[in-house]
Amino acid sequence: GVIPFVIGGNFTGSQRAVFRQAMRHWEKHTCVTFLERTDEDSYIVFTYRPCGSGPPP
């Protein structure tokens, strides 16, 4: 299947490259294809939320 995606703006260029490398790996070994979202209603958003040793919310 086709998976539309968006990579959040808070990732560095090298982090984005890792995402793309991982997606190519999945595409090579499965029947999944990743495509950057255009106007799809359903899509995946890769986001970054720092986790650490701070107090829970």
From TrEMBL:
<feature type="domain" description="Peptidase M12A">
    <location>
        <begin position="1"/>
        <end position="57"/>
    </location>
</feature>
<dbReference type="GO" id="GO:0004222">
    <property type="term" value="F:metalloendopeptidase activity"/>
</dbReference>
<dbReference type="Pfam" id="PF01400">
    <property type="entry name" value="Astacin"/>
</dbReference>
<dbReference type="InterPro" id="IPR024079">
    <property type="entry name" value="MetalloPept_cat_dom_sf"/>
</dbReference>
<dbReference type="GO" id="GO:0006508">
    <property type="term" value="P:proteolysis"/>
</dbReference>
<protein>
    <submittedName>
        <fullName>Bone morphogenetic protein 1</fullName>
    </submittedName>
</protein>
<dbReference type="InterPro" id="IPR001506">
    <property type="entry name" value="Peptidase_M12A"/>
</dbReference>
